Amino acid sequence: MAHAVELLAEQIEGKTEKSWRDDPFTAQALLHGISHLLRHFAPVHKKGAPVPPAIKDAAGKMSSVNAKHFCSPEGFAHLMAFKLIGEIHDAVAQRVPGLIPGLWGVQIVFTAKPEMLALVGRDFGLTKKR
After folding, report:
1. What is the DSSP string of 42-54?
2. Which of 17, 116, 118, 119 has the lowest CB atom count within 10 Å?
3. Are residues 33 and 78 in the same domain?
4. Alpha carbon distance 122, 110 (integer Å)
């Protein structure tokens, strides 16, 4: 999947002659292209489809409002993306002098090696802005 997204990004950037990190049109084109790509190959989600047991178990430890959000594909994806975004920012902050890691100064437990997350952050342009 990552390679497919890379190929799509290269094709879109080649046609627009702009980087998705710098050009809003190119960024939106890539966002929509990734969505179309995944929709084409993903199984169709039907309303009322069963929630995976692991998600139900985790939701059982949450408030009812949070559990309802967590048990939807959109809510679950939001939480997972938010967590990864935080890890990428923290990994970059650990590598760039003067940046403070974590929202509260506490390091997040990384799901991937901090070095790899820092490279992802670099690719997203986080180190250029600092």
Report:
1. SPPP-TTPPPPHH
2. 17
3. no
4. 17
- Of 109 and 95, more confident: 95
Q: What is the mean pLDDT of the chain?
A: 85
Residue 61 lies inside a defined structural domain of this protein: no
Position 109 pLDDT exceeds 80 = no
> What is the 8-class DSSP label of residue 110?
P
* Domain identity same for 37 and 82: no
Contacts 24+ apart (CB under 8 A), 28-34: 33/8, 34/5, 34/8
**Residue 125: what residue type?**
G
Could you tell me if residue 114 is inside a domain? yes
pLDDT at 54: 94
Q: Give the number of domains in the chain.
A: 2
List the domain range (segments joined by +) for residue 11: 1-42
The dihedral sign for the CA sequence 78, 37, 53, 110: negative
Per the structure block, which two tokens stand in for 122? 């670099």
